[in-house]
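step: validate -> pass
step: tokenize input -> pass
step: predict -> running
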Amino acid sequence: MVIASMMILGQFLFRRETVPYQQLQRSTEYKHASLERVGERPASQFVGLGEDRITLTGTLLPIFTGGRLSLDLIRAMAKTGKAWPLIEGSLRMYGWYVIESINETSSVFMSTGHANKIEFTLALKRVDKPDPNRMGKQSLADTLNGYLDNASDYLQDAL
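step: predict -> pass
step: emit ->
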């Protein structure tokens, strides 16, 4: 059985049931050095690639989509500091990315404190293919275990 996904980061599937993003923004920089010249425009020389960033934004409606647990799984991946392959559902390989930041805004709360609406922004930065020791190889089960460990730490701190 094939599981259709919008995108895959490592082993995390971006789907309607997890984190369906509504916007993907990509910014790629190219570096050029300038050399001042008398009476002429500066000379320009291409010196290499700059930053390549992808920002995913969207709104989660936990009744229909994923919620905080899905975002917390991505946070557990980010906490490893490892690079993950980013592959679009069309099988386009973007390259290796690290998770730079995750922002969320919750609103429309139920009486239990659960949010009915969660807006998020996920910032990714492309890196060179990592050394095998720095690659994100852990399974989704390992990521989930890391999340559960973090949740128990959070509960201990709250008590």
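step: describe -> Helices lie at 68-79, 140-158.
step: cleanup -> pass
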